[in-house]
Amino acid sequence: MTNSIAETLKNDAIFIIGSNTSENHPVIATMMKRAKKNGSKIIVADPRRIEMAEWADLFLQIKPGTNIALINGMCHVIIRDGLMDQEFIEENTANFEDLKETLKKYTPEHASAISGVPAQDIVKAAHMYAEAGAAGIYYAMGITQHSKGTHAVMSLSNLALITGNIGKENAGINPLRGQNNVQGACDMGALPADFPGYQKVIKPAVREAFEGYWGRPLSGKVGLTLSEVINAVTKDDVRMLWVFGENPAVSDPDTTHVEHALDHCEFLVVSDLFMTETAEFADVILPAASFAEKEGTFTNTERRVQRIRQAVRPRGNSKPDWEIFMEVMNRLGYDKKYLNPSQIFDEITMVTPSYAGMDYERIDQVGLQWPCPTKEHEGTKYLHKNKIAKGIGLLVPVEYQDPMETTDTEYPYILTTGRILYQYHTMSMTGKTEGLNELTGDSYVEISPDMASRYELNEGDLISLATRRGRIQTSVKITDIIEDEVIFMPFHFAQGANVLTNTALDEIAKIPELKVCAVRLEKEVV
């Protein structure tokens, strides 16, 4: 997030797109609702009439996969109607004329024809966002999990930059992280092209510095993303895989393909709390400790580094991740010993400039937001204050392109997927909770009343769904929050939505297109 969670309370306008905030980030959603009571205007764009839509001043029911068309349409209106921040554009951005030229074709009518959002609502959204004193954009995987997800993020950046909503308090572009330490994992270099602090492995000076820190030669080769790794396993380009705190047998697209890869893998190690679907394929299982059984830090969605403290002793032979990694590292010949996570954090601050000013004493109570470069620095509430961090904000012309898979006569409907409030990720933890399972313990698919009538379906009826990758059975949930020709499934359940989803990747970030694929529906005869 460029801005802080608490700033949500003072947004003049809130644009939520690709985020079911009240179910996936309920604390932040509560702040949005409080902001609404304080006078903030809320715009929600989503394929389903989610709960936050009931709080919205304007709801845009968008066709899955058409985010870029909608955002470009809003940018077109902002420029056409003179709502942009011309001074900010001239002083802080580059490439405005090229962007303006690209946006000419994205009239409200053209954007409407692609996205399904009425042209007059696109105009309203543009004015509501651009005329606000400080407007915040909030998005999640409904933006990124597309074959053009990176370009969708760029289009949101364009929207914020041309209205001067970057480097401003109570505004910004705010991706909402889906799990408690996703931000921290990225910060620590859990990305195939990065060392800690987003320092690039391909840069010789960076690599040499880390070789000095760690006393070992380091590769300058960019690694593979998770989706690429799964494919590489099937080709024997990757022969050993260590999975920790992840369950790709449920969370990744095309479950049949993933299971084949896991079964094919020459040597598979899994570290986890429970026997997950992925662990069923493992050659070795290393029992890991939960968050409550260890010390360390998490970095949350607003870049705040916070301490976690051990509340109970680890069960049985389970160990914190850092101990597991250290023991394996030592047995492989790198004889580096840490006595506790505090020593590891000290090393983090030494090699990561944005963490350099932190230590356990400074983050003991409420934590600090990076960048925090010195011991005197108070942390950074919002990014790009006074000046864009890289010196200039690049406006990137982005064209809308169809999803990699579109509907046809054989597969006539659009399937989109997401999370629900009462289950978490692949249910490896929440699925063991009786009360939650009573609420939502089984897979289901949401369809509109018209579609239910067309197929003579009643609530709870069993149906089959098929795509080019697989086929599943599930039960029907009839709801008016979704449009005809679109169906929705939660992804949490084993042998569920991800049996069907598409493995097509974003060409830049390599994120799968989990949010849209073509599907057919058949009523099961009992």
Report what the structure shows:
The protein has 526 residues and is of the alpha/beta class. It has three domains: 5-176, Dimethylsulfoxide Reductase, domain 2, CATH 3.40.228; 182-369, Rossmann fold; 413-523, Beta Barrel (Barwin-like endoglucanases), CATH 2.40.40.20. The chain contains 18 helices and 21 strands. The chain has helices at residues 21-24, 26-37, 67-80, 86-92, 96-103, 108-115, 119-130, 141-144, 149-162, 182-187, 204-214, 226-234, 248-251, 255-264, 321-331, 341-351, 434-440, 449-454, and strands at 13-17, 41-46, 58-61, 93-94, 135-139, 172-175, 194-195, 199-200, 240-244, 267-272, 284-287, 296-299, 304-308, 368-369, 393-394, 413-418, 444-447, 462-466, 471-478, 486-490, 517-523. Strands 17-19-18-21-16-20 form a six-stranded mixed β-sheet. Strands 3-2-1-5-6 form a five-stranded parallel β-sheet, sandwiched between helices. A three-stranded parallel β-sheet has the order 9-10-11, with no helix packed on it. Helix 3 packs antiparallel against helix 6 (108-115). It is globular and about 65 Å long. The model has no long low-confidence stretch (mean pLDDT 95).
- Distance between the first and last residues' Cα: 49 Å
What's the CATH first level of the largest domain? Alpha Beta
- Main sheet: strands, sense, barrel: 6 strands, mixed
The stretches of 5 or more residues where confidence is low (pLDDT under 50) are none
Reported by name, the CATH topology of the largest domain is: Rossmann fold
CATH architecture of the largest domain: 3-Layer(aba) Sandwich
Question: Residue share in helices?
Answer: 25-40%
The tally of strands reads 21
